C-alpha cells in the first residue's frame, strides 16, 4: 500500500474522534511548552545576573577577606588599599569600602531606621562606574581630614527631602551630624543591594564614628577593596601583583592567602554554574512531562487498537499487509506527537514572551530549545507508538474479524 494512502487512512482515523486526539496530545503540548519556557527563564536569569555584575564596574578586581580562615576578616586593612594604590602597576583606581551596622538617619523632620551606611574613598565613583547626579563626591583630602560630609543615594535623598535639593542640608546618622554635598545617580538594586538607599561617607569618618566600639574588627579594617584595572589584558598581571603584595604584608604564603581576589568573570561563572544546575533540574522536570505525555499516547493507541480490531481484521482480509497496519498506527502516534509538539512550541514561545512582558522574571528565548523540544516530541511519538502499532500488526485476521 502506498505511503500516501496509509498516511491518509491514519489521519482519517485520528479525525474520527477529535476530542480524544486533542486530549491525547495535551501531555506532549505541556511538556514541550515547559521545556521552552523553563529554558527561557533560566537564560533570562543568567543574562540578568551577568548584567548586574558587569554594572559593578568594568575591569574590576574584588579583594575580600578569605572566608573560613580564622582572623582573616580582620586582616584586610585600609593600609592595604593604600599600598595597592601606590605599588601595583596597571591600575587606574582603588576604592576601599567598609559598611558598619545599619543606622538611624534623621533629616528634614523625617526619621528612617536601618539605613545602610557605606564608608568609601574618593575613587569610589570612578572605580565603580557610578556617577554623582547632583553636587560632588568627597575628595581624598576631605577623607584624610575626616570631614563630616555625606553623599546620598538617589532614593534616600528623595525619601528625606522630596523634590527639595539636599545639597548643603544636614542629616544625622546615629548621633553624628553630617552635611550633604552630593546625590548619586539612580542605580537601583544590584545583586540584592539597593544602591539608591545608602549613605556614602568618607571611610575615615566611618572608622572614627562607627567602628570603634562593639566590633571585633580593627577600626581600620575594610570589608572589600575594589581595584579598577587599566585593561582586560592586564588583569592577570595585576592579580599576581596584588597577591604577592598582600601576602607579604600579611606574612602569609601566597599559595594559602587569607584573602580572595575575584574578577567579574569569576563571579559570573559561579552564578552561571548555580543557574545551570537549576536549569538542568527544570529540564528534567519538563522531560518527565514529555515522557508522561508519551505514555498517554501509548495508552490511547492501545485502546484504539482494541476498539478497531474488527476494522484491522477487515483491512487485512482485503489485502493489507501487517506492515501496512503497523505503519498506519505508528503514523497516528507520530502525527499526535508532532501536532502536540507544534502546539507546544507555539505555547512555549508565547508563554516566554508573556512572562518577559508581564512577569517579574526576565526571560530570554533560547532558539535551540525549539528544535530540541520538537525533536524530543517526535522521538517520543515513535518510541511510544511502536508497541501499540506492533500489537495491531500481529493480530490474526480471522480472530480480529470475530472480535466483538
List the helices and strands and how they pair.
Blueprint: H1 3-15, H2 18-54, E1 60-65, H3 78-87, E2 91-97, E3 103-107, E4 110-120, H4 124-127, E5 132-135, H5 140-144, E6 149-152, H6 154-161, E7 170-173, E8 176-184, E9 189-190, E10 193-194, E11 198-202, H7 203-210, E12 224-229, H8 235-250, E13 259-263, H9 264-307, H10 309-317, H11 322-358, H12 369-393, H13 397-401
Parallel strand pairs: 4-11, 6-8
Antiparallel strand pairs: 1-12, 1-13, 2-12, 3-4, 3-7, 5-8, 6-11, 7-8, 9-10
Helix pairs in contact: 1-11, 2-9, 2-11, 2-12, 3-8, 9-11, 9-12, 11-12
CA radius of gyration is 33 Å
Q: State the total count of DSSP E strands.
A: 13
Structural class by SSE content = alpha+beta
- Overall geometry comes to elongated
Runs in which pLDDT lies below 50 for 5 or more consecutive residues are none
Distance between the termini: 27 Å
Output the strand order for the largest sheet. Answer: 3-4-11-6-8-7
How many individual helices? 13
The fraction of residues assigned to DSSP E strands is 15-25%
- Oligomeric grouping of the chains: single chain
Taking the sheet with the most strands, its summary is:
6 strands, mixed, barrel
Order of helices and strands: HHEHEEEHEHEHEEEEEHEHEHHHHH
**Helix amount:** 40-55%
Q: What's the mean pLDDT score?
A: 85
Note down, in words, how this protein is organized.
This protein has 404 residues and is an alpha+beta fold. Helix content is 55%, strand content 17%. It contains 13 helices and 13 strands. The chain has helices at 3-15, 18-54, 78-87, 124-127, 140-144, 154-161, 203-210, 235-250, 264-307, 309-317, 322-358, 369-393, 397-401, and strands spanning 60-65, 91-97, 103-107, 110-120, 132-135, 149-152, 170-173, 176-184, 189-190, 193-194, 198-202, 224-229, 259-263. The chain has a six-stranded mixed barrel. Strands 2-12-1-13 form a four-stranded antiparallel sheet. A two-stranded antiparallel sheet has the order 9-10. Helix 1 (3-15) crosses helix 11, helix 9 (264-307) packs antiparallel against helix 11 and helix 9 packs parallel to helix 12. The longest helix is centred in the last third of the chain and has 44 residues, at 264-307. It starts with a helix and ends with a helix. The mean pLDDT is 85.
Amino acid at each position: 500500500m502506498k505511503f500516501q494512502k496509509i498516511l491518509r487512512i491514519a489521519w482519517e482515523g485520528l479525525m474520527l474522534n477529535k476530542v480524544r486526539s486533542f486530549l491525547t496530545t495535551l501531555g506532549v503540548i505541556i511538556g514541550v511548552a515547559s521545556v521552552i519556557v523553563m529554558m527561557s527563564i533560566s537564560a533570562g536569569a543568567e543574562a540578568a545576573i551577568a548584567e548586574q555584575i558587569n554594572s559593578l564596574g568594568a575591569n574590576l578586581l574584588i579583594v575580600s577577606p578569605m572566608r573560613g580562615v580564622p582572623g582573616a576578616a580582620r586582616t584586610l586593612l585600609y593600609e592595604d588599599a593604600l599600598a595597592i594604590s601606590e605599588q601595583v602597576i596597571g591600575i587606574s583606581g582603588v576604592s576601599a569600602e567598609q559598611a558598619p551596622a545599619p543606622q538611624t538617619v534623621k533629616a528634614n523632620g523625617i526619621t528612617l531606621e536601618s539605613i545602610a551606611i557605606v564608608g568609601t574613598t574618593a575613587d569610589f565613583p570612578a572605580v565603580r562606574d557610578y556617577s554623582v547626579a547632583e553636587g560632588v563626591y568627597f575628595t581624598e583630602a576631605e577623607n584624610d581630614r575626616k570631614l563630616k560630609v555625606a553623599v546620598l543615594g538617589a532614593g534616600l535623598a528623595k525619601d528625606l527631602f522630596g523634590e527639595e535639593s539636599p545639597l548643603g542640608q544636614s542629616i544625622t546618622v546615629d548621633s553624628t551630624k553630617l552635611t550633604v554635598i552630593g546625590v548619586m545617580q539612580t542605580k537601583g538594586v544590584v545583586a540584592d543591594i539597593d544602591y539608591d538607599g545608602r549613605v556614602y561617607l568618607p571611610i575615615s569618618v566611618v572608622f572614627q564614628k562607627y567602628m570603634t566600639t562593639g566590633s571585633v574588627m580593627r577600626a581600620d579594617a575594610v570589608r572589600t577593596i575594589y581595584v579598577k584595572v587599566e585593561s582586560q589584558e592586564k588583569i592577570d598581571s595585576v592579580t599576581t601583583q596584588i597577591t604577592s603584595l598582600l601576602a607579604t604584608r600579611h606574612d602569609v604564603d601566597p599559595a594559602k592567602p587569607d584573602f580572595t581576589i575575584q574578577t567579574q568573570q569569576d563571579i559570573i561563572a559561579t552564578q552561571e554554574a548555580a543557574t545551570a544546575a537549576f536549569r538542568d533540574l527544570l529540564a528534567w522536570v519538563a522531560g518527565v512531562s514529555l515522557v508522561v505525555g508519551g505514555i498517554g499516547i501509548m495508552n490511547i493507541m492501545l485502546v484504539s487498537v482494541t476498539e478497531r480490531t474488527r476494522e484491522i481484521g477487515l483491512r487485512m482480509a482485503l489485502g493489507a499487509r501487517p506492515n501496512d497496519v503497523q505503519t498506519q498506527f505508528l503514523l497516528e502516534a507520530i502525527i499526535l506527537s508532532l501536532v502536540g509538539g507544534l502546539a507546544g512550541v507555539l505555547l512555549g514561545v508565547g508563554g516566554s514572551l508573556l512572562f518577559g512582558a508581564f512577569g517579574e522574571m526576565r526571560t530570554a528565548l533560547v532558539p535551540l530549545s525549539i528544535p530540541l523540544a520538537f525533536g524530543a516530541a517526535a522521538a517520543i511519538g515513535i518510541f511510544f507508538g511502536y508497541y501499540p502499532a506492533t500489537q495491531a500488526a500481529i493480530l490474526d485476521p480471522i480472530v480480529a474479524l470475530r472480535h466483538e
